Amino acid sequence: MADRQRLNVFLDSLYRGNSALLENMEKEAHRADVPVIRKGTQSVMRMLLALKQPVEVLEIGTAVGFSAVFILQNSNAHVTTIENYAPRIAAARENFRRAGVEERVTFLTGDAQDILPYLAGSYDFIFMDAAKGQYSAFLPQVMRLLMPGGVLVTDNVLQEGEILESHYAVERRNRTIYKRMREYLREITEDPRLVTAVIETGDGMAISVKVGKDGGGTTSTEAAVTDGMAISVKVGKDHGAGSDTADSVIKKESI
Ligand SMILES: C[S@@+](CC[C@H](N)C(=O)[O-])C[C@H]1O[C@@H](n2cnc3c(N)ncnc32)[C@H](O)[C@@H]1O
After folding, report:
1. In what helix (H) or strand (E) does residue 125 lie, and over which residues does it extend?
2. Of 44, 60, 201, best ligand 1 pocket probe by most atoms within 8 Å of the beta carbon
3. Alpha helix stretches (DSSP H) within 83-157
4. Nearest residue CA, atom 8 of ligand 1?
Protein backbone atom coordinates (compact mmCIF):
# COMPACT_ATOMS: atom_id res chain seq x y z
CA MET A 1 0.00 0.00 0.00
CA ALA A 2 1.35 3.43 -0.91
CA ASP A 3 2.45 5.75 1.85
CA ARG A 4 -0.65 6.53 3.93
CA GLN A 5 -0.10 10.29 3.94
CA ARG A 6 0.19 10.48 0.13
CA LEU A 7 -2.87 8.29 -0.20
CA ASN A 8 -4.82 10.64 2.08
CA VAL A 9 -3.76 13.67 0.01
CA PHE A 10 -4.90 11.86 -3.14
CA LEU A 11 -8.23 10.90 -1.56
CA ASP A 12 -8.77 14.44 -0.26
CA SER A 13 -8.34 15.68 -3.84
CA LEU A 14 -11.31 13.52 -4.87
CA TYR A 15 -13.75 14.81 -2.27
CA ARG A 16 -16.45 17.14 -3.42
CA GLY A 17 -16.36 20.59 -1.81
CA ASN A 18 -18.95 21.91 0.60
CA SER A 19 -20.92 25.15 0.63
CA ALA A 20 -18.98 28.32 1.49
CA LEU A 21 -20.68 28.38 4.88
CA LEU A 22 -19.61 24.83 5.71
CA GLU A 23 -16.06 25.53 4.52
CA ASN A 24 -15.97 28.52 6.89
CA MET A 25 -17.44 26.54 9.77
CA GLU A 26 -14.84 23.83 9.22
CA LYS A 27 -11.96 26.35 9.22
CA GLU A 28 -13.29 28.05 12.36
CA ALA A 29 -13.65 24.68 14.07
CA HIS A 30 -10.07 23.70 13.19
CA ARG A 31 -8.77 27.05 14.46
CA ALA A 32 -10.64 26.58 17.75
CA ASP A 33 -9.53 22.95 18.08
CA VAL A 34 -13.09 21.68 17.87
CA PRO A 35 -13.24 18.18 16.36
CA VAL A 36 -15.47 17.86 13.30
CA ILE A 37 -15.96 15.01 10.84
CA ARG A 38 -13.01 14.58 8.50
CA LYS A 39 -13.10 14.91 4.71
CA GLY A 40 -13.19 11.15 4.15
CA THR A 41 -15.98 10.76 6.68
CA GLN A 42 -17.89 13.56 4.95
CA SER A 43 -17.56 11.76 1.64
CA VAL A 44 -18.96 8.48 3.02
CA MET A 45 -21.71 10.33 4.91
CA ARG A 46 -22.73 12.21 1.75
CA MET A 47 -23.03 8.94 -0.15
CA LEU A 48 -24.99 7.27 2.68
CA LEU A 49 -27.39 10.22 2.89
CA ALA A 50 -27.98 10.08 -0.86
CA LEU A 51 -28.60 6.34 -0.61
CA LYS A 52 -30.81 6.33 2.45
CA GLN A 53 -32.55 9.69 2.01
CA PRO A 54 -33.40 9.87 5.71
CA VAL A 55 -36.37 11.77 7.02
CA GLU A 56 -35.48 11.89 10.72
CA VAL A 57 -31.84 12.00 11.75
CA LEU A 58 -30.57 11.78 15.33
CA GLU A 59 -27.06 12.99 16.07
CA ILE A 60 -25.32 12.42 19.40
CA GLY A 61 -22.53 14.99 19.68
CA THR A 62 -23.26 18.31 17.96
CA ALA A 63 -20.05 20.18 18.86
CA VAL A 64 -20.49 23.46 16.95
CA GLY A 65 -23.03 22.06 14.49
CA PHE A 66 -20.74 21.29 11.54
CA SER A 67 -21.92 17.73 10.90
CA ALA A 68 -25.56 18.67 11.58
CA VAL A 69 -25.43 21.44 8.95
CA PHE A 70 -23.56 19.05 6.65
CA ILE A 71 -26.37 16.49 7.00
CA LEU A 72 -29.03 19.16 6.45
CA GLN A 73 -27.30 20.46 3.33
CA ASN A 74 -26.92 16.95 1.92
CA SER A 75 -30.43 15.68 2.56
CA ASN A 76 -33.99 16.82 3.10
CA ALA A 77 -34.05 15.45 6.63
CA HIS A 78 -34.94 16.97 9.97
CA VAL A 79 -32.08 16.64 12.47
CA THR A 80 -32.34 16.17 16.24
CA THR A 81 -28.93 16.75 17.77
CA ILE A 82 -27.59 16.55 21.33
CA GLU A 83 -24.71 18.44 22.96
CA ASN A 84 -23.73 18.95 26.58
CA TYR A 85 -20.82 21.41 26.53
CA ALA A 86 -22.04 24.98 27.09
CA PRO A 87 -19.53 26.93 24.94
CA ARG A 88 -20.20 24.60 21.99
CA ILE A 89 -23.96 24.83 22.51
CA ALA A 90 -23.78 28.60 22.05
CA ALA A 91 -21.58 28.28 18.95
CA ALA A 92 -23.86 25.62 17.42
CA ARG A 93 -26.94 27.80 17.96
CA GLU A 94 -25.21 30.64 16.15
CA ASN A 95 -24.16 28.34 13.32
CA PHE A 96 -27.71 27.00 12.87
CA ARG A 97 -28.90 30.60 12.65
CA ARG A 98 -26.17 31.50 10.11
CA ALA A 99 -27.06 28.46 8.02
CA GLY A 100 -30.78 29.32 8.13
CA VAL A 101 -31.65 25.77 9.21
CA GLU A 102 -33.23 26.44 12.64
CA GLU A 103 -36.62 25.12 11.49
CA ARG A 104 -35.11 21.79 10.48
CA VAL A 105 -33.18 21.28 13.72
CA THR A 106 -34.26 20.17 17.17
CA PHE A 107 -31.33 21.06 19.40
CA LEU A 108 -31.34 19.18 22.71
CA THR A 109 -28.86 20.36 25.29
CA GLY A 110 -27.64 18.17 28.12
CA ASP A 111 -26.09 14.76 28.61
CA ALA A 112 -27.17 12.26 25.96
CA GLN A 113 -27.26 9.60 28.66
CA ASP A 114 -30.10 11.52 30.36
CA ILE A 115 -31.85 12.70 27.19
CA LEU A 116 -31.96 9.52 25.08
CA PRO A 117 -34.41 7.61 27.35
CA TYR A 118 -36.91 10.44 26.95
CA LEU A 119 -36.87 10.51 23.15
CA ALA A 120 -39.99 8.97 21.72
CA GLY A 121 -39.44 9.43 18.00
CA SER A 122 -38.05 6.90 15.63
CA TYR A 123 -35.12 7.72 13.42
CA ASP A 124 -34.00 6.33 10.10
CA PHE A 125 -30.42 7.61 10.44
CA ILE A 126 -28.44 7.96 13.66
CA PHE A 127 -24.98 9.51 13.83
CA MET A 128 -23.05 8.63 16.98
CA ASP A 129 -20.18 11.09 17.49
CA ALA A 130 -19.90 11.89 21.20
CA ALA A 131 -17.65 10.71 24.05
CA LYS A 132 -15.98 7.59 22.67
CA GLY A 133 -16.13 5.65 25.92
CA GLN A 134 -19.91 6.03 26.16
CA TYR A 135 -21.02 4.41 22.93
CA SER A 136 -21.90 1.07 24.55
CA ALA A 137 -23.91 2.86 27.21
CA PHE A 138 -25.89 4.69 24.49
CA LEU A 139 -26.43 1.58 22.38
CA PRO A 140 -29.62 0.15 23.99
CA GLN A 141 -31.38 3.50 23.54
CA VAL A 142 -29.99 3.92 20.05
CA MET A 143 -31.35 0.47 19.10
CA ARG A 144 -34.75 1.40 20.54
CA LEU A 145 -34.82 4.64 18.53
CA LEU A 146 -33.48 3.27 15.23
CA MET A 147 -36.18 2.05 12.86
CA PRO A 148 -35.83 -1.25 11.01
CA GLY A 149 -33.88 -0.46 7.86
CA GLY A 150 -32.33 2.53 9.63
CA VAL A 151 -28.63 3.34 9.39
CA LEU A 152 -26.35 3.85 12.38
CA VAL A 153 -23.04 5.57 11.65
CA THR A 154 -20.46 5.58 14.43
CA ASP A 155 -17.41 7.82 14.07
CA ASN A 156 -13.84 7.53 15.38
CA VAL A 157 -14.03 3.80 15.98
CA LEU A 158 -10.36 3.11 15.21
CA GLN A 159 -8.85 5.95 17.26
CA GLU A 160 -5.94 6.52 14.84
CA GLY A 161 -5.29 2.77 14.99
CA GLU A 162 -4.53 3.04 18.71
CA ILE A 163 -7.22 0.58 19.68
CA LEU A 164 -4.93 -2.16 18.35
CA GLU A 165 -2.17 -1.29 20.79
CA SER A 166 -1.54 -3.44 23.80
CA HIS A 167 -2.81 -2.32 27.20
CA TYR A 168 0.66 -1.20 28.29
CA ALA A 169 1.57 0.70 25.13
CA VAL A 170 -1.39 3.03 25.57
CA GLU A 171 -1.45 6.05 27.85
CA ARG A 172 -3.27 5.24 31.06
CA ARG A 173 -6.07 7.77 30.43
CA ASN A 174 -6.86 6.22 27.05
CA ARG A 175 -6.87 2.59 28.16
CA THR A 176 -10.47 2.56 29.27
CA ILE A 177 -11.65 4.40 26.15
CA TYR A 178 -9.94 1.95 23.79
CA LYS A 179 -11.14 -1.05 25.77
CA ARG A 180 -14.70 0.27 25.66
CA MET A 181 -14.42 1.02 21.95
CA ARG A 182 -13.27 -2.54 21.25
CA GLU A 183 -16.22 -3.81 23.28
CA TYR A 184 -18.58 -1.53 21.37
CA LEU A 185 -17.24 -2.81 18.03
CA ARG A 186 -17.81 -6.38 19.20
CA GLU A 187 -21.37 -5.51 20.24
CA ILE A 188 -22.37 -3.90 16.95
CA THR A 189 -20.67 -6.52 14.80
CA GLU A 190 -22.11 -9.47 16.73
CA ASP A 191 -25.62 -8.12 17.26
CA PRO A 192 -27.95 -10.12 14.97
CA ARG A 193 -30.18 -7.05 14.58
CA LEU A 194 -27.38 -5.15 12.84
CA VAL A 195 -25.43 -5.63 9.64
CA THR A 196 -22.21 -3.71 10.21
CA ALA A 197 -19.22 -2.72 8.11
CA VAL A 198 -16.18 -1.20 9.78
CA ILE A 199 -14.09 0.91 7.44
CA GLU A 200 -10.81 2.78 7.87
CA THR A 201 -12.03 6.05 6.38
CA GLY A 202 -11.43 9.17 8.48
CA ASP A 203 -10.70 7.99 11.99
CA GLY A 204 -12.56 4.74 11.36
CA MET A 205 -16.29 4.49 10.81
CA ALA A 206 -18.74 1.74 11.65
CA ILE A 207 -21.74 1.69 9.35
CA SER A 208 -24.61 -0.47 10.57
CA VAL A 209 -28.03 -1.20 9.17
CA LYS A 210 -30.77 -2.38 11.47
CA VAL A 211 -32.41 -5.41 9.94
CA GLY A 212 -35.97 -6.40 10.70
CA LYS A 213 -36.79 -9.26 13.03
CA ASP A 214 -36.37 -11.69 10.17
CA GLY A 215 -33.53 -9.82 8.54
CA GLY A 216 -31.62 -12.84 7.45
CA GLY A 217 -31.44 -14.22 10.95
CA THR A 218 -27.68 -14.19 10.96
CA THR A 219 -25.02 -11.70 11.84
CA SER A 220 -23.39 -10.20 8.81
CA THR A 221 -20.27 -8.16 9.23
CA GLU A 222 -17.90 -6.74 6.68
CA ALA A 223 -14.57 -5.61 7.99
CA ALA A 224 -12.17 -3.03 6.64
CA VAL A 225 -12.03 -2.70 2.89
CA THR A 226 -8.60 -3.84 1.74
CA ASP A 227 -7.87 -2.52 -1.72
CA GLY A 228 -10.15 0.47 -2.18
CA MET A 229 -13.68 0.53 -3.43
CA ALA A 230 -15.65 3.43 -4.89
CA ILE A 231 -19.35 3.47 -4.03
CA SER A 232 -21.52 5.93 -5.94
CA VAL A 233 -25.22 6.65 -5.70
CA LYS A 234 -27.04 8.03 -8.74
CA VAL A 235 -29.17 10.93 -7.53
CA GLY A 236 -32.04 12.73 -9.23
CA LYS A 237 -31.44 16.18 -10.76
CA ASP A 238 -32.82 18.07 -7.77
CA HIS A 239 -31.30 16.00 -5.03
CA GLY A 240 -30.77 17.91 -1.82
CA ALA A 241 -33.22 20.63 -2.75
CA GLY A 242 -36.59 19.10 -2.11
CA SER A 243 -36.44 16.09 -4.36
CA ASP A 244 -36.91 12.48 -3.45
CA THR A 245 -35.76 11.10 -6.72
CA ALA A 246 -32.52 9.34 -5.90
CA ASP A 247 -32.33 6.15 -7.90
CA SER A 248 -30.44 4.25 -5.23
CA VAL A 249 -28.25 2.63 -7.83
CA ILE A 250 -24.92 1.64 -6.37
CA LYS A 251 -21.87 1.13 -8.51
CA LYS A 252 -18.99 -0.67 -6.92
CA GLU A 253 -15.66 -0.74 -8.61
CA SER A 254 -12.19 -1.59 -7.57
CA ILE A 255 -9.94 1.45 -7.65
C1 LIG B 1 -16.42 14.81 18.08
S2 LIG B 1 -17.42 16.06 18.73
C3 LIG B 1 -18.78 16.11 17.63
C4 LIG B 1 -18.42 16.65 16.28
C5 LIG B 1 -19.63 16.91 15.39
N6 LIG B 1 -20.45 15.74 15.25
C7 LIG B 1 -19.14 17.35 14.02
O8 LIG B 1 -18.58 16.51 13.29
O9 LIG B 1 -19.30 18.53 13.69
C10 LIG B 1 -18.16 15.30 20.12
C11 LIG B 1 -19.09 16.22 20.89
O12 LIG B 1 -19.89 15.40 21.73
C13 LIG B 1 -20.11 16.08 22.94
N14 LIG B 1 -20.43 15.07 23.95
C15 LIG B 1 -19.60 14.14 24.48
N16 LIG B 1 -20.26 13.36 25.33
C17 LIG B 1 -21.54 13.79 25.35
C18 LIG B 1 -22.69 13.39 26.06
N19 LIG B 1 -22.66 12.37 26.92
N20 LIG B 1 -23.86 14.06 25.84
C21 LIG B 1 -23.90 15.10 24.96
N22 LIG B 1 -22.82 15.52 24.27
C23 LIG B 1 -21.66 14.89 24.45
C24 LIG B 1 -18.79 16.80 23.21
O25 LIG B 1 -18.96 17.91 24.06
C26 LIG B 1 -18.36 17.19 21.80
O27 LIG B 1 -18.72 18.52 21.48
Report:
1. strand 123-128
2. 60
3. 86-99, 112-115, 135-145
4. 36
Residue to mutate (ligand 1; options 22, 62, 180; most atoms within 8 A of CB): 62
Residue 175 three-state SS = helix
pTM value is 0.85
Backbone phi, psi, residue 250, to 5°: -110, 130
Count CB atoms within 10 A of the CB of residue 146: 22
Report how far residue 151's alpha carbon sits from residue 194's, in angstroms, rounded to the nearest whole number.
9
Vertex 21: Cα angle to 18 and 22 (nearest 5): 45
Q: What angle do CA 123, 129, 131 make, to 5 degrees?
A: 125
pLDDT of 10-23, one tens digit each?
888 888 789 999 99
pLDDT at 142 over 70: yes
- Complete domains list, the chain, with CATH: 4-254 (3.40.50.150)
